[in-house]
């Protein structure tokens, strides 16, 4: 029993000792992290304020190493989360075919972004070379690759709309000069009887490593309406009748078929059409038949046609 009691006391002492040891270690660790140190660390570079005439090349530096003075806590944080630094490339100068950001300017930009408790001691370079190149800009129309199948007695009003209807491509002139249009990915729509709107990807050219496009998608839309047909009895008008004569056509009225939306057909009358026969087409041949032509039709209709033959017989009478 005495041995069990002694063993229990020893285990308790070990636990108490371990707890004090852990507390002492944490106190020492926190005390050391609170002190200032000088060491090197990496910063990730984000390039900002590129002029419209320049693009960032693929050889630009992504990381810069700097010697800083900071607390142990801050160095611990940097080991897990690399800090990002914005680099204003509008402050670069063009020297010997390269865009250079002077070391003093780079230090100034970094100092403005670092925490006041962090001191920037030194950089791993005297200047930063930014890989940029001059670009051309070009507007290219977008063409819809759409196969649209409408239901019977339905039509497309106003054509296909593409938003945006063009794309801006920027890059070296030798890359973008050959781009004349951009098509959408294939879109198949069957049995359509209502308005539609679909977002589709753009088929951007491959292999243009130094070019960028203002958009990667577009919206293809259209208005669909039900149509019908209506017939109109329109008088035949004869042109270029010889002086002193009159022409009587048989028939003197013809049937015109107009195809449009139901609402539009309600607004149309026979006065919106004109059908003419030109006597001058005979050219003195002495024939008795004239060809008809629809010379006036209403706007915003799908189709206008003569229902029957496109000729009329006539009789020339002297006045």
Output the CATH class name of the largest domain: Mainly Beta
What's the mean pLDDT score?
Answer: 84
Order of helices and strands: HEEEHEEEHEEEEEEEHEEEEEEEHEEEE
Overall, the morphology is elongated
Q: Gyration radius, to the nearest Å?
A: 41 Å
**How many helices in DSSP terms?**
5
Unreliable stretches (pLDDT < 50, length at least 5) are 24-34
DSSP strand (E) fraction? over 45%
Major pleated sheet: 9 strands, mixed
Number of domains: 3
Find the CATH topology of the largest domain.
Answer: RNA Polymerase Alpha Subunit, Chain A, domain 2
How many β-strand stretches? 24
N-C termini distance: 151 Å
Structural class: alpha+beta
The CATH level-2 architecture of the largest domain is identified as Beta Complex
Fraction in helix: 10-25%
3D architecture notes:
- The structure is a single chain.
- The protein is built from five helices and 24 strands.
- The protein is elongated, with a radius of gyration of 41 Å.
- It is α+β, with helices and mostly antiparallel strands and 319 residues long.
- The chain has three domains: 35-133, Beta Complex (RNA Polymerase Alpha Subunit, Chain A, domain 2); 136-226, Beta Complex (RNA Polymerase Alpha Subunit, Chain A, domain 2); 227-318, RNA Polymerase Alpha Subunit, Chain A, domain 2.
- Strands 12, 16, 18, 19, 20, 21, 22, 23 and 24 form a nine-stranded mixed beta sheet that branches. A four-stranded mixed beta sheet has the order 4-1-3-7. The protein has a four-stranded mixed beta sheet with strand order 14-10-13-17.
- A hairpin with a 2-residue loop joins β5 and β6 (98-102).
